[in-house]
Amino acid sequence: MGTKDASSLDHQHGTDCGFAGTLKNIQLNDLIQMCCLSASSICMRVTKDDRIGTIFIVDGEIVHAACEDIVGEEAFFRILGWQTGSFESIEVSTTPQRTIQNNYHYLIMEAARRVDEKAGLESEPSATGHDLPEDTADDRLRVLIVDDSPMMRKILSSMLTASNRVKVVGMASNGEEAISMIDDLSPDLVTLDVNMPVMDGTSTIKHIMIKKPCPVVITSNPGDGSSKSIFNFLELGAVDFMSKPTKNQDILVQQQKILERIRVAATATVGNFRIARIPKAKTGNPTDKPVDRVCRRLVIVITGPGGHPEQMSLLSGLVPAMADEDGAVVALQSLPSSFSEPFARYLFERCGCQASPIDHETSLCAGNCYVGNHGWPLTVTLNDHRPVIVPNAPEKGAIQVDRLLSTAASVFKQHLAVVLLSGANTGEQEGLRAVHENGGRIILRKRASGMVAEPLDQVVEAGLADEEVNPSDLIKAVVNGFDLKH
């Protein structure tokens, strides 16, 4: 499915408008994936003998393809079915009408399947079935561990295989080894270290997402300035992050948490991954104090595995939209509590949102975002008739997200909206019930569009979802709902 001739790029002599040159022996599907992963906009003309096809990519999405007398997905599949040819980028003045709706992961994999199917039909059928994997009937979760520490690989392997639901199919000491092993083993999930020799975690996840997308969980030790790189990993397609096991904590508790994170992450539909579309941040100072406007409406945005890019994209527009409604936003993440302050700063740097970590009693001011962790005890209450959010000491047996939602519902009543994104942890759902009982709303990002739907399925099955909304309509659904309830 490659192009073995040259790729020529438009170049105007005497101007700085990019590079002109050739790429030899490159796979066409790899080039398309690189354009999509980098959120590029390009029109690609592909030539094979006397046949010509065009593929339009807009902001990382394949929107249109045309080949001979057909358009849309079938044209795309026909073009990628050519084994050799040449391609060039061409200038277009307008974007054509969209004829392709499926995401690029599906399109690339379906194109590859069709090529393989065609090759299989043209080759002689196998005389026996002895080449089937020996563990075809093995339904355990197949995990590849990637870490440069032999000791950590051994620890993670022993913790994972203690469960009869997990099988460690391989261990790699760097990204280069991992890429080769993924091709051979096709694991259900990869645990990926951040800092490694030969090929580090960043390069590795890019290769995985381009070559053979599968759920990836980043493993690292929080701190030492690692938080920003973790956010970058999550925006490159990693489903989740988990801390490496440590000696000074209960090993059985750590094992239980790791197994649960692995189990949930493995349910991710990686083909639904989308790069966060975030407008350029406004200038300002992240240490500026929030404008002292009383918050009269509150939105709590909860995300979990697979939901970080969704949350980033949503908050960039939701926070200013709520400012116009005298409202504020509380953003709950599933990362360690030590990441709250770095995440607030990251939100400001990437989105321009005035964000603060919830590390002390804080007045909720309109137009601001407050960052917390749904494993940390938070309550909403009134102080001198003003709403405040307060971090509390943990209570044994308390479900922290339930406590936050219940107290927020009692203060804001019908002026509260809860938005649930991929992987959102909703505790025992007592908090969600309290939201309903007090007249608030529960809005879900459409499950079919997200990466991890399982926790949201439970909310729908319990009859607690008021709306299930396409990502592009979430902000409108939140704001319009407040307008209707005044």
Condensed summary:
The chain has 486 residues and is of the alpha/beta class.
Protein described:
- This protein is an alpha/beta fold.
- It has three domains: 2-122, no CATH class; 141-266, 3-Layer(aba) Sandwich (Rossmann fold), CATH 3.40.50.2300; 297-485, 3-Layer(aba) Sandwich (Rossmann fold), CATH 3.40.50.180.
- 34% of the residues lie in helices and 23% in strands.
- It has 14 helices and 23 strands.
- It has helices at residues 28-37, 73-80, 104-122, 150-161, 175-185, 201-211, 227-236, 251-265, 308-323, 340-351, 400-412, 430-437, 454-461, 474-485, and strands at residues 2-3, 7-8, 26-27, 42-48, 51-58, 61-67, 70-71, 86-90, 141-146, 166-172, 189-193, 216-220, 240-243, 297-302, 327-333, 355-357, 362-363, 369-373, 378-383, 386-391, 416-420, 441-445, 467-469.
- Strands 16-18-15-14-21-22-23 form a seven-stranded parallel beta sheet, with helices on both faces. Strands 2-8-4-5-6-7 form a six-stranded mixed beta sheet, with helices on one face. The chain has a five-stranded parallel beta sheet with strand order 10-9-11-12-13, with helices on both faces.
- β6 (61-67) and β7 (70-71) form a beta hairpin.
- α1 packs across α6 (201-211), α2 packs across α3 (104-122) and α5 packs parallel to α6.
- The model is unreliable at 1-16 and 124-136 (pLDDT under 50).
- Adjacency order of strands in the biggest sheet: 16-18-15-14-21-22-23
Helix content: 25-40%
CATH fold type of the largest domain: Rossmann fold
Distance between the amino and carboxyl termini? 57 Å
Indicate the low-confidence ranges by residue numbers: 1-16, 124-136
For the CA atoms, what is the radius of gyration?
24 Å
For the report, how would you describe the main beta sheet? 7 strands, parallel
Averaging pLDDT over every residue, what do you get? 83
Shape: globular
Q: Count of helical segments? A: 14
Q: In what range is the share of β-strand residues?
A: 15-25%
CATH top level of the largest domain is Alpha Beta
**Count of folded domains:** 3
